[in-house]
């Protein structure tokens, strides 16, 4: 009889044993069990007995949708080629699905109708955004496809018949619309923002300035190193991003969105800002002495993937042999990296403290950068490449919804014609 074993991953026990594939070669198959080791061992024995009798792998009859998602994360998502950011986003989505009743339903009993009602509830009752819904749809489609093949847990995939529906943007034609655009900052607002941060001596000012002049995402700004900046060409190479991994509970240095490396040119104003920041960091290093912090990365291998954990130590702490020092651009006065989470907290504070900034968020700086370039005659294709968008339509959609002032100025051109 084939040998089998059980092992624990997280809260769950898994069982596995060897079977023959279509070519007659032995291949190890693993299935999710329960939180009980003894119950999982019983499932293993039953599965191996059925395989010996029928040469067919036993189906885990009691597997739920939530258990399928756990199995999909371990066997399909983590070993896959997605960026760390996308992987973390999908794992977070799995966590949200598992909190809902659909996760408790038996896998063999789930129909397209169940899944359609669930997706409609997320849209129409909970008001989830299109971005959230795309993530839910992607996770469920991939997980059910995985359940059919290669796992052969079910023979029918219900997800192709499920449609992601969105609320209609119906307008009340008799009601005044007082909504503000709020997608970009005017130069007056930007200066007001800088004044506020300078008065507070807040280190988030540098990430905000870089984003305003380059359109970089928050993780990309925090992931910038001095080696990425070419002052002669006035060009930044964007190759990495800093993100918090909620599953591993640590900050990681990973690739950018879609794992693309791009180059972004910058103006003289930002060149002066960066040179001043570099000089200030050298001054702070002398000022703090052994208490000045240094940033490192540690390469961690998890299955087929490598992760680069961020570690910060001051001069009094022992640096492990596996640490590699890195020189970040956006630092606090004590040398610690200015993290995306900290910058986001500052943005939330700004929304509360500054009048007219009630809708402010860091990504608004990226929209402002896009609008400023396009409204001043930049080529849309070139702006797309600077931003790292996969499609130029994404770039133009941001611009089209970004500034009411730009639309107003366009309309005012008619005054020049008639005069």
What does this 3D model show about the protein?
There is one protein chain. By secondary structure, this protein is an alpha+beta fold. The chain is built from 15 helices and eleven strands. The protein has a three-stranded antiparallel beta sheet with strand order 1-2-3. Helix 2 (65-77) crosses helix 5 (130-148) and helix 7 (205-214) packs parallel to helix 11 (363-375). It is globular and about 85 Å long. 29% of the residues are buried.
Average pLDDT figure: 84
Number of strands: 11
**Shape estimate:** globular
- Uncertain spans, ≥5 residues at pLDDT below 50? 177-182
Largest sheet: 3 strands, antiparallel
Residue share in helix: 40-55%
Structural class by sheet pairing and helices? alpha+beta
**Rg (C-alpha, Å):** 26 Å
Described by its quaternary structure, the protein is single chain
Number of contiguous helices: 15
Trace the largest sheet across and list its strands.
Answer: 1-2-3
Order of helices and strands: EEEHHHHHHHHEEEEEHEEEHHHHHH
Question: Beta-sheet strand percentage?
Answer: 15-25%
User: In angstroms, what separates the terminal alpha carbons?
Assistant: 94 Å
Secondary structure topology:
Layout: E1 4-9, E2 12-20, E3 26-32, H1 37-54, H2 65-77, H3 84-97, H4 112-125, H5 130-148, H6 187-200, H7 205-214, H8 218-222, E4 229-230, E5 235-238, E6 241-245, E7 250-254, E8 262-265, H9 268-288, E9 293-302, E10 305-314, E11 323-326, H10 340-353, H11 363-375, H12 380-387, H13 392-400, H14 404-411, H15 413-418
Antiparallel strand pairs: 1-2, 2-3, 4-5, 5-8, 6-7, 9-10, 9-11
Helix pairs in contact: 2-3, 2-5, 3-5, 7-9, 7-11, 12-13
């Amino acid at each position: 009889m084939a040998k089998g074993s059980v092992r624990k991953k997280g809260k769950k026990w898994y069982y596995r044993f060897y079977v023959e594939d279509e070519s007659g070669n032995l291949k190890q198959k693993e299935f999710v069990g329960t939180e009980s080791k003894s119950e999982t061992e019983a499932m293993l024995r039953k599965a191996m007995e059925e395989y010996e009798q029928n040469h067919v792998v036993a189906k885990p009859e009691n597997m739920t949708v939530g258990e399928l998602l756990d199995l999909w994360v371990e066997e399909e998502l983590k070993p896959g080629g997605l960026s760390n950011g996308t992987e973390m986003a999908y794992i977070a989505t799995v966590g949200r699905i598992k909190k809902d009743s659909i996760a408790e339903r038996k896998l063999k009993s789930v129909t397209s109708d169940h899944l359609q009602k669930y997706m409609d509830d997320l849209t129409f009752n909970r008001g989830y955004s299109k971005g959230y819904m795309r993530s839910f749809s992607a996770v469920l489609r991939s997980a059910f496809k995985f359940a059919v093949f290669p796992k052969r847990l079910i023979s029918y995939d219900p997800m192709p018949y499920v449609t992601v529906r969105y609320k209609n943007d119906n307008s009340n034609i008799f009601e005044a619309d007082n909504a503000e655009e709020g997608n970009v900052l005017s130069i007056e607002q930007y200066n007001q923002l800088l004044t506020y941060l300078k008065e507070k001596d807040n280190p988030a000012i540098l990430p905000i300035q870089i984003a305003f002049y380059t359109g970089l995402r928050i993780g990309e700004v925090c992931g910038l190193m001095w080696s990425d900046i070419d002052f002669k060409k006035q060009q930044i190479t964007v190759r990495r991003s800093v993100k918090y991994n909620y599953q591993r509970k640590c900050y990681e240095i990973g690739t950018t969105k879609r794992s693309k490396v791009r180059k972004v040119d910058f103006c003289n104003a930002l060149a002066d800002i960066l040179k001043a920041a570099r000089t200030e960091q050298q001054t702070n290093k002398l000022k703090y002495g052994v208490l000045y912090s240094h940033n490192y990365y540690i390469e961690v291998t998890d299955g087929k993937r490598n992760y680069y954990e961020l570690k910060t130590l001051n001069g009094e702490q022992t640096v492990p042999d596996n640490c590699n020092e890195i020189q970040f651009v956006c630092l606090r006065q004590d040398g610690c990296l200015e993290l995306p989470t900290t910058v986001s907290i500052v943005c939330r504070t700004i929304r509360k403290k500054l009048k007219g900034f009630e809708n402010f968020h860091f990504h608004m700086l990226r929209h402002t950068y896009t609008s400023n370039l396009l409204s001043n005659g930049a080529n849309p294709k070139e702006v797309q490449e600077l931003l790292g968008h996969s499609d130029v339509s994404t770039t133009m959609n941001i611009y089209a919804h970004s500034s009411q002032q730009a639309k107003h100025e366009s309309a005012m051109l008619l005054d020049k014609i008639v005069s």
